[in-house]
Design goal:
The protein has about 220 residues and is of the alpha+beta class. It is about 30% helix and about 30% strand. The strands form three sheets. Strands 1-2-3-4 form a four-stranded antiparallel β-sheet, with no helix packed on it. Strands 8-7-10-11 form a four-stranded antiparallel β-sheet, with no helix packed on it. The two termini are about 50 Å apart.
């Protein structure tokens, strides 16, 4: 939701989206949004259209449309109660005597409020202590996570290909596929450094898919 008159450049539209490929893997691709499909002065649920900016090895064969809904809300009106405020000033002045008379009661209650503030300060210490535990747990969970690194060289390649991996889990596999998703090679037992013979592959562009059940990573291979 955005307020009336919000410019297109101020919309928090996503710059990248995740798409699912025909081979079951997913890929982050860039998107481009059409500014002409948005009117900042039209109060409505507007459909903003966009296009996928796809790399060479991905084709939008089903012509999937990219859209997002932006709700433009009505402009808020300023309150015009100045006249009423001036008219009420007399009543406020008349009540000032009562307020002064009540000040003694307010001062008497101040002691109770100060007494309660000690309890509130005591509770704040507990809350601060708990926040420290929460932050420590967050740091621990980040430290325990491992990022898989997957690289190939040389690329382009003709015969032997060196595959470099790190932080891989047991049961990880590597597949070599063409752009239609047809698999030509598959490696089940992977090591940190692995040599792969691709001499039997025809010249062209292939996709190398790494999968360990949790992470999926792809590399584009050019066979010469």
């Amino acid at each position: 939701e955005v307020t009336f008159g919000t410019e297109f450049s101020a919309l928090a539209l996503p710059e990248m989206v995740s798409v699912e490929l025909s081979n079951g893997s997913s890929e982050e691709v860039e998107v481009s949004w059409d500014e002409a499909s948005y009117d900042p002065e039209e109060v409505a649920d507007q459909i903003v259209t966009g296009e996928f900016v796809l790399p060479e090895f991905i084709v939008n064969s089903n012509s999937i449309d990219l859209t997002i809904t932006v709700s433009v809300l009505e402009e808020e009106e300023d309150d015009d109660d100045g006249g009423d405020e001036d008219g009420d000033s007399g009543d406020e002045d008349g009540d000032s005597g009562d307020e002064d008379g009540d000040s003694g009661d307010e001062d008497a209650d101040a002691g109770d409020e100060d007494g309660d503030s000690g309890d509130e300060d005591g509770d704040s210490g507990d809350e601060d202590g708990d926040s420290g535990d929460e932050e420590e747990e967050t740091v621990t969970s980040i430290a325990d996570s491992k990022l898989v690194e997957f690289n190939i060289h040389p690329n382009p390649a003709s015969n032997m290909l060196t595959i470099s991996l790190s932080n891989i889990e047991a049961g990880a596999s590597l597949s070599v596929m063409d752009l239609s998703g047809r698999e030509f090679l598959r490696v089940e037992k992977l090591e940190d450094k692995h040599q792969l013979d691709i001499s039997n592959l025809k010249e062209g562009v292939y996709i190398m898919l790494f999968n360990d059940g949790t992470n999926q990573k792809t590399q584009r291979l050019i066979k010469r």
